[in-house]
Amino acid sequence: MADETARTTVCGKSISDFLSTIQSFHGWKAPGIVLGGMMVDWARELIGPEIEADAIVESRHCLPDAVQLFTPCTVGNGWLKILDWDKFALTLYDRKKLSGYRVWFDLDKAQRFPDLYKWYMRLISKQDLPLDSLLNLILTAGRSPLSRQPVRMTRLYERKKKGVIEICSGCNEAYPAAQGPQCLACQGDGYYEIDGSSG
């Protein structure tokens, strides 16, 4: 029940280049990024290559990397937003018209590929489904375990622009003035403390 047309390219790259790109960026051929790349490929095709798209991903796991690798959308340029919903779904949308496509890993369709379903649901061990077998399964399944729908953005599409910058009276570092009279770290809301034992 594989995709009707055998995939020879994904995101404009040969399968070997597609996998090499993932390995170079992530350190290994992460199956979640491979699956995410298939999703990006379909969303890009649906929205059209000429569209300047922004992206929203609904998981912090693997999908942000797939979008950053295979589209111009990154966290740094503000074109990618990450929602911590832990749903394996992404949306590419026209930033001017606010319309686009949402693509997701469809559990009902995935059941046609029992090992793929078990992998996603964490019901099978890595010993029982080695990486090469899993990657082959994802590439063979292609778009078959995915669904898509056209969407119109209603929120979360605004790009955050840098506001006024101040110099913190506590640490003497630049910070967004919107945080208050001092940076969040000096207000006691930091993620670190100074380690006096190191040089």
Keywords:
7 helices; 199 residues; alpha+beta; two-stranded antiparallel sheet; disordered N terminus; 19% strand; 9 strands; 32% helix; single chain
Shape: globular
Distance between the amino and carboxyl termini: 60 Å
- Structural class comes to alpha+beta
Computed over alpha carbons, the radius of gyration is 20 Å
Number of helices: 7
What is the number of beta strands? 9
Low-confidence stretches: 1-5
Describe the structure.
With 199 residues, the protein is an alpha+beta fold. It is 32% helix and 19% strand. It has seven helices and nine strands; from the N terminus they run ββααβαβββαααβββα. The strands form three sheets. A five-stranded mixed beta sheet has the order 4-3-5-6-7. β1 and β2 form a beta hairpin. α2 crosses α3 (63-70). The longest helix is centred in the first third of the chain and has 17 residues, at 31-47. It is globular and about 60 Å long. The relative contact order is 0.14.
Q: Summary?
A:
The chain has 199 residues and is of the alpha+beta class.
SSE blueprint and pairings:
Elements: E1 9-10, E2 13-14, H1 15-26, H2 31-47, E3 53-57, H3 63-70, E4 80-82, E5 89-94, E6 99-105, H4 107-110, H5 114-120, H6 131-141, E7 146-152, E8 165-167, E9 174-176, H7 185-189
Parallel strand pairs: 3-4
Antiparallel strand pairs: 1-2, 3-5, 5-6, 6-7, 8-9
Helix pairs in contact: 2-3, 2-6
